[in-house]
């Protein structure tokens, strides 16, 4: 009987019933985190699955190694080797993943109340920030990419058009392409109020000989720059 008792007992008294309570709490909080991450955010099915199951997995590991320094160091080393090999996640997705891991750790150590409070507070703040559009770029900010021939001086060739249609322009990157015969210019710009974007691009086409031009909002790349 002692053998069976040891099978269903973890860390000096965390019996199977308590473990199941922690597991249920982890599943529920993981589901809440997944739903919160889906609010006003681009998401994938695999990420939603991961956010639901990650707290349970982490909770189980922490419950088994809790109080054992050597095992804890080994688990920390294992976690340091984890790399998400799917599409790069946005900053908000990474935050949700860390929240799910934190909830799993708290539940694994028996701090269910802290896990619940952490989930509620972070999810509420996340929804408020999303609802108020906190940190979003202004509507008139653009990422502009223009291809020009190598015969033109890229440093100031577009300045007349930029002064006419923008309040701010910054050349952030220059790249040669097509065996060095073309320059690919990348600008961060702020368009003037009531400016026609089409007219702006049409004038740029006159200067660059109708070569390729791309003008897009900075957040058009899947919510933000990827991490």
What does this structure look like?
The protein has 227 residues and is α+β, with helices and mostly antiparallel strands. 52% of the residues lie in helices and 17% in strands. It contains 8 helices and 6 strands; from the N terminus they run H-E-E-H-H-H-H-H-E-H-E-E-H-E. It has a 4-stranded antiparallel sheet with strand order 4-5-3-6. A hairpin with a 3-residue loop joins strand 1 and strand 2 (14-15). Helix 3 (45-65) runs parallel beside helix 5 and helix 5 (91-108) packs antiparallel against helix 6 (112-131). The longest helix is centred in the N-terminal third of the chain and has 23 residues, at 16-38. 21% of the residues are buried. The model is unreliable at 1-13 and 220-227 (pLDDT under 50).
Question: Which structural traits does this protein have?
Answer:
single chain, 227 residues, alpha+beta, 4-stranded antiparallel sheet, 8 helices, elongated
């Amino acid at each position: 009987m002692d053998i069976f008792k040891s099978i269903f007992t973890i860390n000096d008294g965390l019996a199977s019933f308590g473990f199941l309570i922690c597991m249920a709490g982890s599943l529920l909080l993981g589901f809440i985190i997944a739903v919160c991450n889906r609010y006003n955010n681009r998401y994938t099915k695999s990420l939603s699955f991961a956010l639901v199951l990650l707290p349970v997995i982490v909770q189980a590991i922490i419950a088994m190694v809790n109080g054992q320094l050597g095992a804890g160091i080994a688990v920390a080393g294992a976690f340091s080797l984890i790399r998400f090999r799917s599409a790069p996640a946005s900053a908000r997705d990474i935050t949700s993943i860390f929240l799910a891991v934190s909830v799993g750790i708290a539940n694994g150590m028996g701090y269910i109340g802290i896990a619940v409070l952490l989930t509620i507070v972070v999810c509420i703040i996340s929804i408020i920030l999303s609802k108020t559009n906190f940190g979003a770029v202004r509507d008139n900010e653009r990422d502009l990419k223009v291809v020009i021939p190598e015969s033109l001086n890229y440093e100031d060739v577009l300045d007349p058009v930029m002064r006419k249609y923008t309040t701010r322009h910054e050349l952030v990157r220059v790249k040669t392409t097509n065996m060095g015969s073309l320059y690919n210019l990348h600008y961060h710009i702020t368009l003037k109020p009531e400016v026609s974007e089409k007219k702006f691009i049409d004038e740029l086409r006159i200067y660059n000989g109708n070569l390729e031009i791309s003008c897009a909002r900075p957040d058009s790349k899947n919510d933000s720059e990827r991490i």
